[in-house]
Amino acid sequence: MNTTIAAISTAMSASGIGIVRISGEHSVDVIKKIYRSKNGKKQLDQVPSHTIHYGYIYDEEEMIDEVLVMVMRAPRTYTGEDTVEIDCHGGVCAMRRVLDTVLKHGAKTAEPGEFTKRAFLNGKLDLSQAEAVIDVINSKNEFALKSSMSQLKGSVKREIEKIRSSLIYHIAYIESALDDPEHISIDGYGEKLKMTTTQEKEKIYRLLSTVREGKMIREGIQTVILGKPNAGKSSLLNLLIGENKAIVTDIAGTTRDVLEECITLSGISLKIIDTAGIRDTEDLVEQIGVDKAKEMGKEADLILYVVDSSVPLDENDEKIIEMMEGKQAIVLLNKTDLESVVEEEELKVKTGHFVLPISAKEETGIQDLVEKIKEMFFDGNITFNDEVYITNVRQKEALEEAYHSLELVEQSISMGMPEDFFSIDLMNAYEALGRILGESVGEDLVNEIFSKFCTGK
Ligand code: GDP
């Protein structure tokens, strides 16, 4: 923490501007040694905080680049330390030379995520917010970005703090009562406490129930395309991807491998798996594909069942319809440009799912499909303005542990156990929630979390 660190914070590719960031106690000393203003008179250790200065970076007598330098004094900075940002030219070579000069004059190379790690260690961000920083950077769609931004602004932190403050009140009360039984009575306290545990469990449950949706927002809806060979699965996938990756042929049973594609439609990401067509087959290789498809169907968030409307339904369709039971699914009645032998209404009754007529060939019905998916997974409106979504496995596990501890408190209450039993489990819940914010987490975990960041962040 005592060293002054530096890194290139922008992408390492040719661009208009590149930013070299310096943070730590000696940031201003470093920049003072290498910066010269136009008239040579300005000294950057004399300037007010949060000001920008035009000039040049010099390595001894050699001019390296023309720059703008931002001087920001602690504690009102991202890391909470003195910070200097140098806007230099964005060429890879120019950025490297500026960074090398900074390193030569007293800074050390920053580890990946070290700026944000310092922000966390200096109390500028809690761990849930620090994790949101990387999520914002990695967001693949508009909705993932919105939910990460809301976490960055402290939405998760606020929810967790509310629950914790309610728990700590009871812990403190029970502890005081046990210390001073003459003045503080806890007769019948269990009943009162039970109201709180019920209430707080409910809040934790609500947060946990966002995990599935949160995951779909972030990683995409796990989607499997099922259908008999030749129904038009690959054509649909290609249409969705907008390029010809899967092999499209007229011979039934050619899509043997499982292909996975991540696509974004109107802001929603789908992780689509195209599968071998489902049919009874003697061909061993094909059978493996069919089995795989069945397995994928079980795990999927969404099944898209493609039906060729120009051929009658048969026992293979029956099998697929069985696989869709209890799953979120949309039936796509394909090849509606051809003469139809399968009726929309008939399929609806048979499958119990929504049926959408499309033509992969003529590219019709795709927008309706997108709307339907939105409606199914996000109630049609995805705003995220005030919603808290838990998208992080670490946070989810801590919530589950807290929930379990509160269940144990309730058990102790109903079994008439002594009050110190209540406070042990309450404290466990309190600590588990604290880990979400980064309290009492070990150095190893902190290092692991920040090592996933990019350098310069
Ligand atoms: P898969 O085996 O389910 O992946 O089916 P393919 O996507 O390979 O399509 C099988 C055949 O049906 C190909 O010749 C496609 O061009 C054709 N096909 C796919 N969709 C349509 C459609 O909407 N209308 C018509 N007329 N042909 C289609």
Topology:
Layout: E1 5-8, E2 15-23, H1 27-34, E3 35-36, E4 51-59, E5 62-72, E6 83-90, H2 92-104, E7 108-109, H3 114-121, H4 127-138, H5 142-152, H6 155-179, H7 189-208, H8 211-219, E8 221-227, H9 233-241, E9 259-265, E10 268-274, H10 284-299, E11 302-308, H11 315-323, E12 329-334, H12 344-351, E13 354-357, H13 366-378, H14 393-414, H15 419-437, H16 443-451
Parallel strand pairs: 1-7, 8-10, 8-11, 11-12, 12-13
Antiparallel strand pairs: 1-2, 2-6, 3-4, 4-5, 5-6, 9-10
Helix pairs in contact: 4-5, 5-8, 6-7, 6-15, 7-14, 14-15
The structure holds guanosine-5'-diphosphate.
Brief synopsis:
With 457 residues, the chain is of the alpha/beta class.
Question: How would you characterize the overall build of this protein?
Answer:
It is a single chain. This protein is α/β, with parallel strands linked by helices and 457 residues long. It folds into three domains: 5-110, 2-Layer Sandwich (Gyrase A, domain 2); 139-210 and 390-441, tRNA modification GTPase MnmE domain 2 (Four Helix Bundle (Hemerythrin (Met), subunit A)); 216-378, Rossmann fold (3-Layer(aba) Sandwich). Helices cover 46% and strands 18% of the residues. It has 16 helices and 13 strands. It has helices spanning 27-34, 92-104, 114-121, 127-138, 142-152, 155-179, 189-208, 211-219, 233-241, 284-299, 315-323, 344-351, 366-378, 393-414, 419-437, 443-451; strands at residues 5-8, 15-23, 35-36, 51-59, 62-72, 83-90, 108-109, 221-227, 259-265, 268-274, 302-308, 329-334, 354-357. It has a seven-stranded mixed sheet with strand order 3-4-5-6-2-1-7. Strand 4 (51-59) and strand 5 (62-72) form a beta hairpin. The structure holds guanosine-5'-diphosphate. The site of guanosine-5'-diphosphate has 20 residues, from helix 9.
